[in-house]
Amino acid sequence: MSDVRFTKDHEWVRIEGDTATVGISEYAQEQLGDVVFVELPTVGADVEAGGDAAVVESVKAASEVYAPIGGTIVEVNEDLEATPGLVNESAEDAGWFWRMEISDADELEELMTTADYKAFLEGLD
Amino acid sequence: MSARSQAHSAGRGVDNDAPETMTTHSGHRGLQMEEPLIFEMGSTGRTGVDLPPVPEVASKLGGLARQGEIGLPALSEPQVVRHYVRVSQKNYAIDAGLYPLGSCTMKHNPRLNEKVARLPGFSDVHPLQPQSTVQGALEVIDTVAHWLITLTGLPGVAMSPAAGAHGELTGMMAIRAAHEARGDARKRILVPDSAHGTNPATAVLCGYQVDPVPSLANGRIDLEALKAKLDDDVAAIMLTNPNTCGLFEDQIIEVAEAIHAVGAYFYCDGANFNAIVGKVRPGDLGIDVMHLNLHKTFSTPHGGGGPGSGPVVMSAELTPFAPLPYVVKGADGLRLVETEADQAAAGDGGQAYGRMRSFHGQMGMFVRALAFMMSHGADGLRLVAEDSVLNANYVLARLKDVMTPAYRGPCMHEVLFDDSFLKDTGVTTLDFSKAMIDEGFHPMTVYFPLIVHGAMLTEPTESESKESMDVFIDTLRGLAADAKAGDTARFIGAPYLAPRRRLDETQAARKPRLRWTPEAPAEAAE
User: Fold this and answer.
1) B359 touches chain A (CB under 8 A)
2) Looking at the 3D structure of chain B, how many domains does it have?
3) Which among A59, A64, A83 is the top mutation candidate for probing chain B, defined by the most B β-carbons within 10 Å of its own β-carbon?
4) Phi then psi for B347, rounded to 5 degrees?
5) CATH number of the domain to which B345 belongs
6) Nearest chain B Cα to A37, which residue?
7) B204 touches chain A (CB under 8 A)
8) Below-70 pLDDT ranges, chain B
9) Distance in Å, alpha carbon of B511 to nearest chain A alpha carbon
10) B460: containing domain
11) For the segment B193-238, what is each residue's pLDDT rounded down to a tens digit?
12) N- to C-terminal Cα distance for chain A?
């Protein structure tokens, strides 16, 4: 089973060996409302943990999506260009944003587990 | 679904006895006309005037003459007049009712402004006329500049910027020029997370990186977080005061001191100057540069994309970097410094980075702003600030028991609610604002500032009477009670009574139709 971690900025990262898939959480898509545009990173770009990587725009607001961990972008979810609503329909699965090669696995230790994140969300309301 | 319960603003001609589903033969509703686009109207060949037939001429276009229809609507003059009158009647504006948006053209434009602006000496001048023939117009520019300098306590002003965001860019370019003149290329601009979206956009357009500064739980900037970000790579901070939460930044002096300690400049977004005009001079707060929206604080109209005006006041240190042109007093009257050569000849030490636009600024807006300033006087402008803050606090005081203020304590010119009073009702901020349309009100600003959940931001300005605010407040109280009582039908599909029902904002953003296209395109050759 793959390991999923969350950031306090509501990104999720699913680790599969040396690569990781990143998206925004179910909570984040619910808060944003209907997503109308996603600006994805460039394949081959290097991102730092906490750095800007993508932009998600909804009817309410445009928000930065930060890289949960550092690494190199290896693939982006091109389906989001034509169907940004995938982020609303399936935030933590088909609505993924990008895949990346992990540069430093230790950075994952900084992130929240699913249970931690759930507790974190309960603290927000 | 039935949303036909009594309107809270009843007595305004809403007929509650009409059958809910009644349609009309004409498609009009009462005297509310259903108006097509002008391109959907008209028949081929009709004209407003009779023109003689075009005589036979030998074409010199070498076969490039248009072959097909040009596709313009063909209408008579009365049809055109009715079309535009009907379209204009669909507009909601400050002249039609309370406009709580707090955006451009947020307050009443006194008709005296219009009378003065229409004087031929102002309305008929041309920017390329010899300067000796427009001394009066130049004096208006110079006098408005003097008022702005006096009101802000900053010694220089660039009058030409076209509106707020253009003024921001003007000010940030002056900051950049000042740093670069010292050989000090800095890269970062600090922007609070409650800022107007134009602030980070301006910083990026000016070639800087944006570094956001968080706000405290009380809605003000986090001074400690700000200090932690300061180093000699920070070029400036862009702060709005009062800020977008309608709150005075009470640590602004400390912010200015901290910014200046690292050699950076303090840009203030003057969009909310209405709340402090005549009360506080921004120069005394340590602000180095600030734009002023004449179309907000000084009442000049800027609705529907009409001309705004965003002069930028600057400190003595930044003034040499202000753009061209500017007015100076010479031995034989006023004249414009328009070129780098003029500036060198003037010998004032100016190092303008060029121009921000053609010509000298929005002359018509300068005249209106000056009419507003002079008819109010210094004491009247102070009252503008006091009454605008009083009005916002009246709205806050009368709504705080049924809606939820985002922050504790009194507000400045704007009152900000969050959506916690709608929690578990199934009604969102968007639904609530759409229901206001059925009640005859333009919605307030919603979902901004971004740091407040489901934000609802109302700015009554000093224009509103107690009577008009009471109707507005009573309506909002009624809607809040409906939402809490579970009467969600009137919200979920709102507006019900407007000429158009709720528009699909998602579809409009995802697949915008940006221009009208004919259903059966004419076979026109390009």
Assistant:
1) no
2) 2
3) A59
4) 65, 30
5) 3.40.640.10
6) B510
7) no
8) 1-7, 9-20, 304-305, 520-526
9) 9
10) 378-500
11) 999 999 999 999 999 999 999 999 999 999 999 999 999 999 999 9
12) 31
Distance from CA of B509 to the nearest CA of A (A): 6
Rounded to two decimals, what is the model's pTM? 0.88
Residues B235 and B119 in one domain: yes
Is residue B63 assigned to a domain? Answer: no
pLDDT per residue as tens digits for the range A2-20 = 689 999 999 999 999 999 9
Which residues in A lie closer than 8 A to residue B504 (C-beta atoms)? Answer: none
Q: Are strands A3-6 and A112-113 parallel, antiparallel or unpaired?
A: antiparallel
Those residues of chain A whose CB sits closer than 8 Å to some CB in chain B are: 34, 36-37, 57, 59-61, 84-85
ipTM above 0.85, yes or no: no
Chain B: closest CA distance from residue A18 (Å): 31
Q: What is the CA radius of gyration of chain B?
A: 27
Question: Strand B289-291 and strand A46-47: pairing?
Answer: unpaired
- CA-closest candidate to residue B302, choices B109, B85, B493, B20: B109
Q: Are residues B365 and B218 located together in one domain of the fold?
A: yes
Same domain, B295 and B344: yes
The alpha-carbon gap from A70 to the nearest alpha carbon of chain B, in Å, equals 19
DSSP string for residues in chain A: --EEEE-TTSEEEEEETTEEEEEE-HHHHHHH-SEEEEEPPPTT-EE-TTSEEEEEEESS-EEEEE-SS-EEEEEE-THHHH-TTHHHH-TTTTT--EEEEES-GGGGGGSEEHHHHHHHHHHH-
A99: distance to nearest CA of chain B, Å?
A: 24
**Are B238 and B357 found together in one domain?**
yes
B171 neighbors B267 (Cβ within 8 angstroms): yes
Which of B351, B369, B387 is the C-terminal boundary of a domain?
Answer: B369
- Give the CATH number, domain containing residue B427: 3.90.1150.10
Interface test with chain A among B452, B457, B505, by most A beta carbons within 10 Å: B505
Of B447, B450, B506, the CB nearest to A34: B506
Residue B517 at interface with chain A, using a CB cutoff of 8 Å: no
Least CA distance to B512: which residue of chain A? A36
In sign, the C-alpha dihedral spanning B76, B81, B84, B85 is negative
Q: What strand order describes the sheet that includes B404-405? A: B404-405, B415-418, B456-458, B445-446
pLDDT at B4: 43
Query: What are the structural domains, with CATH classification, of chain A?
Result: 3-105 (2.40.50.100)
